[in-house]
Amino acid sequence: MSQSHQQPALPTCPGCEEPLDAGDRFCGACGHDLSAVPTGPGDRPTMAVAVPPAGQAAEAGPGDAGTPDAGAPRAGAVEGGAVRWPAAAETDSSDVPAPVHSPADVPGTDSDGRPLTGPGAESGGGAGAAPGGPAHEEAGAVRVRHDHRAAPGGGTATGAAADAGGAARTTGDRAAAVAGAAPDGAAEPGGDPDSGDFPLAAPDPRTAEHAPAAPAAGEKVCVACRSGRVDPDGYCENCGHAQPRERDHMEQELDTVAAVSDRGLRHHRNEDSFAVSSTALPDGSPAVVAIVCDGVSSASRPDEASAAAATAANEALLAALPRGTHPQQAMHEAIVAASEAVNALAQEPAGAMGHDAHRHQNAPACTLVGAVVAGGLLIVGWVGDSRVYWVPEDRTRPTARLTEDDSWAAQMVAAGLMNEAEAYADDRAHAITGWLGADAYELEPHTAAFKPDRPGLVVVCTDGLWNYAESGEEMAAAVPADAQERPLHAAQVLVGHALDGGGHDNVTVALLPFAVGPDGAGSARESV
Question: Region (Disordered) spans which residues (predicted)?
């Protein structure tokens, strides 16, 4: 039966510097294996621990006083090709389980199948002694793994780690030990590639810095860190910041029309949509179009409804106006086309609702308001409570609201039951009585034609804006004085006005500057 030789008493534990008692084999505080750390000279508190080749252990006699553990089997001693381990108690005096030996303390192979230790190996100073030390001159010493290389000062990497405060080693410690073994921090030139040594330790993935991939040309860049690429889910690959969705804020400007839409400060998405465009009438004169839609939040998929309606109405006008269709008739047909597009969203394919039986309890719905400036006329059309305002260039002239809401409040005022202030102060004021959708009571498109005799600005907006500038005078006060020359900037200012007021709803506004010919014209109005 193998027995472990009693080591001379050490004054303190090499691992935690706790005072030791005579005869202790393990530290009572940290459980350090004292038998694996023989007492060294006073000027070298730690010594290289080498695994002796087979045969050398047998040569050491019991009376060899110069070797503390002579004549006794050492940890990992090889006799007859078999590894002999010292007997160890299951627990030490502090009831801490006895530590196990590192696999590198005994002969074996690494993960690549190369030998770690063995008789007759090239001289390596036992457990990685410093180059030039006595261990390099010792014949028959064994080379060990790279994580046992010598630390600066002559001790082993294992001993250096223990002196620093613990036997556990991280990859960073091994890298430091390798750097200390070679003056240039690299592997020794001319080393045997099959010796089991590795030139450098692999970097610790927990501490390695991963540079973010630079966005390619045309890819979105994170709005937070300004360097990360945005993945398909809408998050930055560098900082993880959620990116604004495309519809959260939209802007578009043409030569004679501009529009801005914003999510606002309270809603989680933008359910408004718009479309602006320009075309030519058969006589070659220009025609400018602006469509603004507001999704009904209580309906399902209101954002899809508003987008479908705006697109369909815009395409219908662009198709009808160049054919010579009267602008007012073209506006009526555009509203009908928009209604059909929204109705089509309610036609779900069979089985599409299987995953969510309560998703489509009501049909997608939205409101619509549009304006066309063509041939000296201003044509407006609407269904719902989105509005069109007229703001003259000369602010001393009166302003006007050109649409009537399809809402509970408007019905109360029209019936003479309430005045406008009382009706719009009621909680039911914004309950709409007309909308585009499969569940609408009856589609009643409203259109009106005007022929202004003075230049001005046409403001087409949702209730997210006019809630903060309800009357014509309030809207005119919010419109910048240079809106005729800078419509996009003016639209941005109006959206900012709504956000400054609280931004309780999505905000969308389109501005169309209206110019009058040199001959002027009297104003006229036709409505159907």
Answer: 1-136, 148-218
Q: Which two tokens stand for residue 157?
A: 């990497």
Is 49 within 8 Å of 156 (Cβ atoms)?
Answer: yes
- For residue 268, the tally of other CB atoms under 10 A from its CB is 9
| Same domain membership, residue 336 and residue 211 | no
Question: For all residues of the chain together, what is the average pLDDT?
Answer: 75
Is residue 62 one of the residues assigned to a domain? yes
Q: How many CB atoms lie within 10 A of CB 370?
A: 30
185/206 same-domain check = no
Q: Which DSSP string do the residues of 100-144 spell out, in sequence order?
A: PPPGGGSS-B-TTS-BS--TTPPP-TTTTPPTTSHHHHSTT----
**Tokens for 44?**
């070298």
C-alpha to C-alpha distance for 154 and 131, rounded to whole angstroms: 9
Is residue 160, in this structure, part of any structural domain at all?
yes
pLDDT tens by residue, 159-192: 444 444 444 444 444 444 444 444 444 444 445 5
Range of the domain at 100: 3-197
Tokens linked to 138: 């010792």
Q: What Cα–Cα distance (Å) separates residue 436 from each residue in 83, 177, 330, 337?
A: 86, 75, 17, 10
Number of domains composing the chain: 3
Take residue 146 and report the two structure tokens written for it.
């790279």
